[in-house]
Amino acid sequence: MYLVDTNIWLERLLDQAGSEEVGQFLQRVSNDRLYLSDFTMHSIGIILLKLDEAATFARFVQDVLIDGVVRLVALQPEDMTNVTDAAKKYKLDFDDAYQYSAAGKFNFHIVSFDSDFDRTDRGRKLPGEIEPEHARSDEAQSEE
């Protein structure tokens, strides 16, 4: 299972340099194996509204979360100690520490372009590193 970081979604939504790689990743991986955090959803909303892209945000929520099968996960107040501990231990900002903690809580791989995750014990995967056979197989997930 994969926790897809904010920058992955934004890369595609804003048609940035890695958009094609993200598009291929989203085609290779079954949507029911993809998760995003509530923090990611809110961050995307903040960024897109700041860019006057409210319609893009509404379409993203509709397509990915409402009509799609990508699932939303959230940390609870009692998880915030893990977030602050991760921030201190790995020198992460709050959003990266939140993603790291969510991935740990739910046992997900982090998919991100953010190299800050390389300092952690969980690491990260780039979208292009995820092979189709691993992307669709629960057995492959448990072997990693």
What descriptive keywords fit this protein?
144 residues; 54% helix; alpha/beta; globular; 8 helices; 4-stranded parallel beta sheet; Rossmann fold; disordered C terminus
Write the layout of secondary structure elements.
Layout: E1 2-4, H1 6-13, H2 19-28, E2 34-37, H3 38-50, H4 54-66, E3 71-73, H5 80-90, H6 94-106, E4 109-111, H7 132-135, H8 138-143
Parallel strand pairs: 1-2, 1-4, 2-3
Helix pairs in contact: 1-2, 3-4, 5-6
Write up what this structure looks like.
This protein is an alpha/beta fold and 144 residues long. It has one domain (2-143): 5'-nuclease (Rossmann fold, 3-Layer(aba) Sandwich), CATH 3.40.50. Helices cover 54% and strands 9% of the residues. The model is unreliable at 136-144 (pLDDT under 50).
CATH topology, which one?
Answer: Rossmann fold
In one word, what is the shape? Answer: globular
Number of helices: 8
CATH class: Alpha Beta
Q: Regions with pLDDT < 50 over 5+ consecutive residues?
A: 136-144
Write the CATH architecture name. Answer: 3-Layer(aba) Sandwich
Which range best describes the helical content: under 10%, 10-25%, 25-40%, 40-55%, 55-70% or over 70%? 40-55%
Give the N-terminus to C-terminus distance in angstroms: 11 Å
The major pleated sheet works out as: 4 strands, parallel
Number of domains: 1
**By CATH's scheme, which homologous superfamily applies?**
5'-nuclease
Overall structural class, as computed from helix and strand content, comes to: alpha/beta
| Overall pLDDT score | 92
- What's the gyration radius in Å? 15 Å
N to C succession of SSEs: EHHEHHEHHEHH
E-strand count: 4
Major sheet: order of its strands? Answer: 3-2-1-4
- Sheet-strand content, in percent, reads 5-15%
